[in-house]
Amino acid sequence: MGQGPYAAYRIPFTDFNMHDTGVHSSEIHEQGNKVMADAHLAEAYRSSTLRLFTHRLQAISEVPGFERLRDRARAIKCEVIEHLDYYLEQFADNVERRGVKVHWATTAEEACAVVRQIAEQAGAREVVKAKSMVGEEIELNQALEAAGIRPVESDLGEFIIQLAGERPAHIVAPAIHMTRRDVSELFVKHIHSERTEVPERLTAIARRTLREMFAKAGMGLSGANFLVAETGTVVLVENEGNIRFSTTAPRVHVTLVGIEKLIPRFADLGVFLRLLGRSGTGQKLTSYTSLLTGPRHAGEDGPEEMHVVLVDNGRIKTLADPKMREVLYCIRCGACLNTCPVYRKIGGHAYGWVYSGPIGALITPQFVGLQQARELPFASSLCGACREVCPVRINIPDLLLHLRSEAQEEVPLPRPKGSPVRERTSMRLWAWVMNRPRVYALGSRLARWGQWIIARKGWIRRIPFYPASRWTDRRDLPALAPQAFRTLWKELHDGDE
Ligand code: SF4
Question: What is the value of pTM for the model shown?
């Protein structure tokens, strides 16, 4: 490239940070506490997830029959997962007929080796990457770097976290935890850009910097949102246009994708496209939807060579478990993260691996083993909000409970010492009261009367005794309502049959 507008900033490759590898789920409490103690970080998570959550609500309210769409999507995913072998074969046959080379990878190492070999055969020293969670999962960047090949993330969020040397903090919005100021600081430090906090300026800086890469990279790599078995089509959705560039500009393109991303028919695509954008970001449709149907033919744009790498890496094992195979329905929309009260508080990095939030708590133990991710199924209040928003109706709370009992059997914890004795006694007392409606009613009347000592303006800021004090250590507790629900119910329905 010459001295055109796109030559303004250069990516100093030597300045890229590789994030730490491995699974750190056992540190979820420490990492979560750090986020909650950091007002800046806590606000970034709170405001971003609230925005996505609100946009989703607005978007789905405009679609008549949204619940029926969810039912249809679940039925389609159920069909495909129950007959995964059939649909995988159908997809592979059809996509090969279109001139695409199909590769099968059982493990992360195998998948990395396949991509590395393709890059080496293509003579690519740089690989421009569109967002790929499977790439994160198999630690592809580390593998490419080790082979002397430079991976450059082209999705804005991924580019930011690549500069920061971090893992994605969210399935859909990898840099959700960063404010404009954080991004500005990163750009100044790593690509020596001007200092600005104007979003449009920051985006323009990233665009100018990355534009050069699309022209220069010998290979492009993307994930896939859906694979259509009937037609052998790879479907990608995005908002930035970087996927279009990554999949068309370089001479060679690789799609790296988990085997669960299949849908049976082209006609099914409409169901998922209507759900995905609305559930994830509250958009009717993302800005770009790309359908890849093979390498270019004479007179067309696109790569000369196209490969699809179908990755297992724990998915077949999950499929073999009749209870847990439901997690393979996931279309990675991120809605369960945005609605989860735990994710909103502790953020994505606390989950200690690539996938976070409720779906991360389910799939991480599948992919890395319960031994390494034992804490994750317990990182949930089981409120059911995730199940309410999931476009394919995965029964997340139910599966979390199932994993909890598996965790207790497979990796039992030593009996707790010290204060948990008081906790156990409190729980026994609670269970005793809950089994005696009259005692419960009397207790709640007394608590309602006695709370005036600690409640102010409808909130209890601090409860002085354990274990309730742990609740108010970090959050306020709403005071008991002036009237019990039972009393209200009785009043409302007085005279009903
Ligand atoms: S579990 Fe459901 S809500 Fe969560 S990311 Fe997957 S599809 Fe979206």
Answer: 0.87
